[in-house]
Structure prediction request, 747 residues.
Amino acid sequence: MGGINQRGLAFFLIVLLSMTLPVTAQSNASNEALVDGRIVQISLDNTAPYQNDISVQAGTYVSLTVACDSCSVTLQSDTGSLSNGLRIMHFTENDTSLNMSISSETAQDAAYFLRTNISDNFPTLRPSPSTQVTYTTTAACTLAADCMDVLRGSLASYPPTELVESAIHSGVIESEHDEFIAIEMTEGQTLEWQWLDLHKATSVEMYFQNQESEILLNGSLSGEQGYTELTTYISGQESTLSEPLAQWWVAPTDGRIVARISSEISPTVWSAMLMTYDAQPSTSLIGKDLLYGTTLLGHSATISPFDWNDTRSMDLHSRLGSVTLRVDQLLNGNWIEGELRTLEKGESIRVFPYPEIVGGRLVVSDSPAFSVEFLMHEFTDAGSGIEAPSSRLMDLNQSNASWPLASINSSTRGELTLAVHDTSDTYRISVPGWEDSVHFIQFEIIGNVSNLEAVLWDIDQTTSEPLSTAPSVLTSDGIRVSGQVGRGTHFLQIRLINSSMGTQHLWGENVPPLEYTINPAYQLIDEGDEPWFPPSDEAVKWGEIARWFLGGLFLLPVAFVLISARRNRNYGLELLAMKERLAWYKERLDSGELNVHATQRDLVRALHAVAQLEWEDGVSAWGTPALKHRTEGLDLAVWHLDSRMAKTPSAWPLVIGLHVIEGDWDLAALRFDAPEGQPLTVTHVEPRFLFQGEEVFLDTLKKGHRTFLTVELSGDNSIVDIELNGRMDTQPFAAKIPMSLSRSEEE
Prediction:
């Protein structure tokens, strides 16, 4: 056990029994400090003892208790010296003066409390309900928070200094006769009885009386021999701080409480602190932001209304004792009562709101003394202060403020709060742009998403109907959904694959949420038409002239296109006649007849030209493919390209040919997947298709479409699988070449 010098600060925080400090003839005033009007803290050293002269009245008791590591305590009177360890009780027959001396061989801090002039002045017979009595004063607290300090780890009272004198009472039980104390009470008022110091084992029980009847109230409070609030155990060199020994009783109606104090051993000196607390029918928390937490203190019962909505859960914690409570919710003007629960010391509960509630109240009942800690948590989505709806907005002309915004430029956080059966979150997507602009957006959803799926709706801004629906795909990090949309408002939904998995428990049951993060990717594909405003008359006039002039000029590109198309087709026929064009490039590079840049430019031209030929003619023009795969609706061919023709250093260049035989494709994308080892990355594509990671996005492919493109892959892997993914005739479809392509096969 620790010594008093290690607990000096703790003594300042302990409320102990009151004492009367008479005028002293001699004292070490410079070495003492009065704490809370009740405790004297002193500093001892080996040079001189601490001394104090005390005047006492005849026929009374003096009680002294000292807490120290190792010290000697003496009371010196005219008739002799008293020394009985660290606790001394002395009866004086005549008016006299006592000298108190506390000495120590080592420097240390100590504390003591002293009670003088204690006499047997309380009745020894219990009054009947109709008997007039003299009421004992108590310290009255209007608000519990004024006299309770939970930071000290107890629900017992720690009254302010100005209330101490009326709170502390002492007495003597002689000849084994019980003592009775009457306290006037009003309905709902709470009486707290706190033992401060007992020389012998003593107990107290309470009777409630009104004008007509008497009942014995439940509970009693017993203290062991030698109990003191200053120390629970004093023996030789050791002392230990104690927790206050307190009990509470509530007056059922107006009347009085009669305390019966009894002990089997006499004489017994006792001291107690008596506090009364007014009933608190209501303790309002309206206006407090419970996201930062608060503590509700009180006695017996109270109703505490607070602000609440359907996007916040609430934690209730009872740190110091048992409390019986329930949480009610205000819905459509009616209170829905919650389940009555009893929280034992250290227990907590989390309460979730019903949909569309507008307030709450905590109802505490049958709890002698309580301390309830509030702390709220938001479960909104996208930091918007609202919970994302489970379905999209059906009419864009209506307000969309209830749908949180998922940004296309920064990450968004959300959760499926399963405790309130939240199985689907729908986000609003706002895409700025000009009329007829085309945008590619992609959302990567990571987190606890193994049981989730996502869908992206491209919404017609006129009819509010979906133009297309893009489902999600599973990735190594989470799930991904992407698609092309126009400008305006569109919707992203994240939901449980099996919604029944999120509703198997009762509403409000504390089930962990599914938290996720939405990471967007955005690219403008077509900026569309710049906004147009009606021209002035002058602009119309000169516009007519300009249109005729420019109309003629506009025919020049048409002619150019026709000439270019003819030249491309003729060039394609030349390539067909030559055959093995890729081998021809290699030979010219080996011989030095062509440099790399000239070969690259010629290859780009050849890609457009060969696409004008029939499919089989185009395949023949390039030479024998390294891989070729044909299905009923699709033909794929792959050629190795000399690595010197790559625009990216150390890249692996390929020529890919694609012919749509049947069906119309949309959201088509070529994927280059490394079956083992590190993934490959697309670094360059000709013609210029959109690409990202290991995918090249081809978008829409109509029946009969033929295209040839070069793709450059970077990475340490030398094996790749090639597949085409997308939707054929609005149905998800994939075509994969069954054989892997090896770089080692490159000619």
